[in-house]
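Appendix B. One record, verbatim.
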Amino acid sequence: MITFEEAIKIVSSIPFTISTESIELSSSVGRILAEDVFSDMDMPPFDKSAMDGYACLQSDLPGPLKVLEIIPAGVQPSETITPGYCSKIMTGGIVPAGADCILKVEETESSGEGYIRFTSKYTFHNICFKGEDIKTGDRVLTKGTEIQPQHIAVMAAVGYCNPLVNKKLRAGILVTGDELVEPHKKPSDTKIRNSNGWQIIAQCLRAGLEPNYYGIIPDEQDNLFLFIQKSLNENNILLLTGGVSMGDFDYVPAMLRKAGVEIIFEKVAVQPGSPTLFGKTENCFVFGLPGNPVSTFVQFELMVRALANKLNGLDYQPRMLPLQLAATYSRKKAFRKSFFPVKVDASGKVKALEYHGSAHIFSFSEANAIASIEAGCFEIPEGDYINVRFI
């Protein structure tokens, strides 16, 4: 058995090669940039008006100023501003030569036909100057960025229309257990519904993986071996749930070895999810996750997602904060590092949710974070700080 910290270090240090592809800008949300992005022009590309108003010389204020022309956005000014003159300009319009400020339209009044006067005591320049945001050649996005709508705007602004992104990884999902039926079936007295498979599908999607669900695999060695072989050949990551512990029908570790998987570890000093297995072949990484749904959920978030982030080339660190407990948290056993569901309220206080153990997935229905308590620690008093990882 290895510590949780050792397990994470192993998973996070596995060497790998990332494949890339160019895709349409409109399809790139959620994908991971495979290269830095640079601007092909100054932004703004010219001195532009920050508001609707009048372009003029500040030294002429308060006026009166004769209006030379109206400058819409996207139109080149035809007049130069000289003492005693101004031009009406729209937001985003090109500031005419000679002008050094823009008067807000609401701070002016007509002072005769074709003339305006400034009615306030002071004005800012109200000009967005050429290149003040970005200059040609500046890096605007960094390799490893998960593309969000604001990044789409940045790429569009600099003409980066076919972003180079890391290829999506396929995650094969095998759920083992003769006792399982799919959710659309009402189980008999000896069966339970398969919640793990559908939970893992959703977690894969959130982690940027393409789930490839093979269904429920009976606890029969030859059949399990065939599905393991097939999924190892068809996926970048293989996720199995159930069959990894010490029971008479827990065939997963033996069948993985038979299929050529190098088992790196298969037991971690953590709760929930101690019987978590990690291995690899030349082309596929393998996780054997426990059958209990909380164990599967937590170890996916902690370990599988750490590997997925790395394989996706994502520059990502989970949000972890030390926050205060709203009430004392205690436990009866403290042999292992433990993770448990919590809810962080609007004030930043942490409330431990009612939790009956690794089969109690309903405890996570209101959870927005997971908290941890170290091995050997039985109690954390109210008001003390506890490490919280948002989910």
